[in-house]
């Protein structure tokens, strides 16, 4: 009934009049609902999305029964009241050091994943960043966090903020001895 009345109000009107008609129909929507139900419009970061062919589409407002589902309303209010978490290091990237041959510069490969909406497949992409390493402490294979910086050269716009994980250095002689001991035993 709501959709029919909305369509009938839009016929033969200008855009401005159509917007006014839309707001009038939306304001009349609670009166069309049964008296013991309420329409809830969650904020943008809590809206439910439905899968569409080329993307996502918003679901219509959810009807919540006021009699038995007060807990859901309380949960929704808590989510609305709680602030969104901000990242500890905004604009930072994590990657693996792949080159250290230049002085005070390291090459960092950052892996990012995106989902192909059509085929539902995760695609991995690698982008290479040149980062400033003042003390030249990074080695190949280390996992580092890089942060944006002022341009230091033509390609260098990042600096190494911290080394998250060192590459494990294995001494080949000790590994050979262990393998030889296992073979003999």
* Helix and strand composition category: alpha+beta
Assign a percent range to the helix content: 25-40%
CATH topology of the largest domain, which one?
OB fold (Dihydrolipoamide Acetyltransferase, E2P)
- Supply the number of helical segments: 4
Give the name of the CATH superfamily of the largest domain. Nucleic acid-binding proteins
Give the topology string: H per helix, E per strand.
HHEEEEHEEEEEH
Describe the main β-sheet briefly: 5 strands, mixed, barrel
Low-confidence stretches: 1-15, 29-34
Q: Oligomeric state of the chains?
A: single chain
C-alpha Rg (nearest Å): 29 Å
Second CATH tier, the architecture of the largest domain: Beta Barrel
Give the strand tally.
Answer: 9
Shape: extended
Placed side by side, the strands forming the largest sheet appear as 5-6-7-9-8
Strand content: 25-35%
Average pLDDT level: 73
User: How far is the first residue's CA from the last residue's CA?
Assistant: 83 Å
CATH class of the largest domain: Mainly Beta
Tally of individual domains: 3
